[in-house]
Design brief:
alpha+beta, Porin, two-stranded antiparallel ribbon, 5 helices
């Protein structure tokens, strides 16, 4: 995968350690678009035991995708992307004439990729607006060498189709109910493309690129977020239903209401009790409850009066 890509993936995984889990997206479709720089690694072009290595300028990538959010963790998408990098030098790495090895000449032209990818994403929902993710994708790529020349001599002008893959990680920022801002890294690679040079000789090349992308994602449906008012209403209804119907022990009644709310992880009723009545213990079986707490519970009908 390469040392640079490993460091970038480690960075994004480390970022996840700063956040804990909970903002969710509703199920449904979304559109996304991204743009950013592309670093295409040097490529060995090999034919008949001769290897010519091309180096490349930093290029750019742009992409658009239609996706579907299955749940708060999983989403998939169909992505179309385009990438272009200029060819900088052509170096003789291996030849039948040792004296030529290492010779580098300035080169013009471009490497162009047009990709169709099926991508899968695993999101790590967070209490923070920042949501880390990991992704992977497979697809096909049209790879072209466009007017690659050394001086006035044409080296290659050809294209071919290959299989493609990508792996990546990134961070999403929850900007609004329907919009996320995104930052991601992707390692894009293909099977070795075969080209034909200007003399008709076929040669194998290689594609491996480190891509950074800044983007935006638009959801057709608002993301599912539970508001404080809806938590309050549902919590109050649940507390009404949880009142005991017999006995007149106010301590027992208050304890049962708290214990029932604590029986469910992150139950909004417990949050409501803490907020409105100032519950100071996490253990419903550890009295004493304060007089103020019991009065608050009774006033709201969550504990029976004497």
């Amino acid at each position: 995968m390469g040392y640079i890509s490993v460091k970038i993936l480690v960075f994004f995984l480390f970022s996840y350690a700063l956040f804990s889990c909970s903002i969710a997206h509703s199920e449904g479709f979304y559109l996304s678009g991204q743009v950013g720089p592309s670093i295409l690694q040097d490529a060995d072009n090999e034919a008949n035991s001769i290897i010519l290595t091309t180096s490349h300028d930093v290029g750019f990538n742009v992409s658009g995708a239609l996706g579907y959010q299955w749940n708060k963790y999983l989403r998939g998408e169909l992505e179309l992307s385009y990438q272009r990098n200029g060819v900088k030098t052509l170096t003789v790495t291996q030849s039948s004439f040792p004296s030529l090895n290492g010779l580098a000449v300035k080169t013009d032209g471009d490497v162009r990729l047009f990709n169709v990818m099926l991508n899968g994403f695993w999101d790590f929902p967070s209490n923070s607006p920042v949501v880390p993710y990991l992704m992977g994708g497979v697809g096909v790529s049209s790879v072209a060498l466009e007017d690659v020349t050394t001086g006035s001599i044409l080296f290659a002008d050809d294209s071919t189709g290959v299989t493609a893959y990508q792996l990546g990680a990134g961070l999403d920022y929850d900007f609004s109910e329907r919009i996320d801002l995104t930052l991601g890294y992707r390692l894009l690679g293909t099977s070795d493309p075969e080209f034909e040079d200007s003399t008709g000789v076929k040669f194998d090349s290689e594609i491996l690129s480190h891509n950074i992308a800044f983007g935006v994602r638009f959801y057709f449906s608002p993301k599912s977020k539970t508001t404080s008012s809806s938590i309050s209403a549902s919590a109050k209804r649940s507390l009404e239903n949880s009142k005991i119907s017999n006995g007149n022990e106010e301590i027992k009644s208050a304890r049962n209401a708290v214990s029932d709310a604590q029986g469910v992880k992150n139950d909004p009723r417990l949050l409501l009790i803490k907020k409105e009545c100032g519950l100071v213990t996490n253990n419903p079986h550890s009295p004493p409850y304060t007089k103020e707490f019991l009065n608050c519970m009774k006033e709201r009908g969550w504990a029976q009066k004497k």
